[in-house]
Amino acid sequence: MGKRLFDLVVAAAGLLLLWPLFALIALAIRLDSPGPVFFRQERVGRHGVPFRIHKFRTMVADAPVRGRELTVGDDPRITRVGAVLRRYKLDELPQLIDVLQGTMSLVGPRPEVPRYVQLYPPALREKVLSVRPGITDLASIEYRRESELLARSDDPERTYVQEVLPHKLQYAAQYVEHATLWTDLRLLARTLRVLWGGGT
């Protein structure tokens, strides 16, 4: 089974099976704070083509005008429901829609916002953007507590650009070089273990 067919089958099955959970999450978001259920943001996709990613909203509706794009520690913009969604990465589930639309894959380098993509070294930029971005990848697992790491920094933006982003790019490049359906299955299984079973 090819990667794209695998993505389509799993994403379609996931949306079909998880729609009751989607409905409950949507209701909780609306009851918790005013604003839309989904958060849409421009990210850079395959071959540098921009797209708007789907996420469940985890912050107050006017969060973009209240602070930076990075989420640092116990960001006061995060809602009560949003904190739970972030802890278990449930806010990422709507990206199954992006997988069906063809702008994302289940596994692949996480898509960045345009201003950080501009900082990619040219050779790595071409390599990382040669594949569809994913819902999960090795960097997502290794940096699952990224906001806590940034909260310990005197300058979170600088720490992200100079320390975190280069490591993420290295993970992404390694994925592109060695990606197979088997590696995707292993990363999906590891992601589930980390989120729900406390594994590594």
Automatic annotation (TrEMBL):
Keywords from the named record: Transferase
Classification via InterPro entries: Bact_transf
Pfam families: Bac_transf
Domain Bacterial sugar transferase: 3-195
GO molecular function: phosphotransferase activity, for other substituted phosphate groups
Origin superkingdom: Bacteria
Family: Belongs to the bacterial sugar transferase family.
Protein name (Swiss-Prot/TrEMBL): Lipopolysaccharide/colanic/teichoic acid biosynthesis glycosyltransferase
